Amino acid sequence: STFPEYQTIIFNVDAIRGGNKLKFAIIVFHELMHLKGHLAFEAEEREFENKEGKIKVDVDVSVLRRGLAVKSAQKHREYAQEKHEHFRGLEEAVVSYFEKNFVQEILSLPIFEKEKEQLTSIGAADLKQKIAESKKINSEDVYWVGESKEDYAEFSYPHHRKVFNLLINEIKKKFPDKYNSPDEVALEFLRSKFNGKLRDIAELVEKTFGDLSFRVLGIMNDDENSAINVLEYLRAALRNKNSKERGKYVKE
Q: Residue by residue, what is the 3-state secondary structure of 202-249?
């Protein structure tokens, strides 16, 4: 778990110590991506009465932005029902996407020479396929296998990555003169994650999927079901927008 406000990552040593080096490297990469993202705090002075009945002033500091995720302002947090967070799921989707892309660079390091040799063997490829069929997951999401179908590791947030892959592929189609590949679109989201500017990616999403689509994307949290629901919405919104544009073209 990562706590950007304390610039801290906490690891479960029982799960990490003496275990899989590659899995640990992937986890470190994932959490560092969260840790080094855009970070903004909100600070408010508050008066309170101490035990002696004297009025004191304290400063309440809380996280307002971390990476792509946006938290509600303090004035809303006074009421539990108004406390909220947006784009948590998009933050995880972007980090997971680059986590998956980065694994080959990790495996190219000399320290992982044995792991790379083992993972590129025919036996490992066969086992990956068996695991994927047994667990009903994508074989490309399995980045490490041991000696049995129960001993494996997969990339995080597969459903969130489906949402992100839909975003970057459709934006690439919408703006073919601006982007040469979906990876270039992905870099736009990565820039926003680090510079804290959401307007650019908001415009890309809404011009591709229609009005309010970026707000709906913001509803996606780190839960699997929320990613599935947002994916269905974006697909429907895309069909609806394309249908309207085709109708307008025919009319003209």
A: HHHHHHHHCCCHHHHHHHCCCCHHHHHHHHHHHHHHHHHHHHHHHHHH
**Cα–Cα dist 95/156, whole Å:** 9
Residues 63, 75 contacting (CB under 8 angstroms): no
Percentages helix, strand, coil for the chain, rounded to the nearest 5? 60, 15, 25
Q: Where are the beta strands (DSSP E) in 10-145?
A: 39-49, 55-66, 69-71, 85-86, 142-145
pTM of the predicted protein model: 0.87
**What pLDDT shows up at residue 250?**
46
pLDDT in tens, 119-151: 988 899 899 999 999 989 998 999 988 877 788
CA distance 5 to 163: 28
The token pair that represents 105 in the structure block: 């660079």
